[in-house]
Specification:
52 residues, single chain, two-stranded parallel ribbon, alpha+beta, globular
């Protein structure tokens, strides 16, 4: 279970994300898509496309 305070921002990424990317690739998506520093204490929720 994840417990967050009201001061802890949570961002939801719309669309599907290729979760096969390395951590550096996902960090780059956070920087480019949200304009955020991925090293900060922030929660980003992403979803992957389901496979058939």
């Amino acid at each position: 279970m994840l417990t967050l305070s009201s001061a802890h921002p949570v961002y939801l990424a719309a669309g599907s994300t290729d979760l096969r990317k390395s951590i550096d690739g996902l960090a780059a998506l956070v920087q480019e898509g949200f304009g955020l520093d991925p090293a900060r204490s922030t929660t980003i929720a992403v979803s992957a496309r389901s496979s058939p």
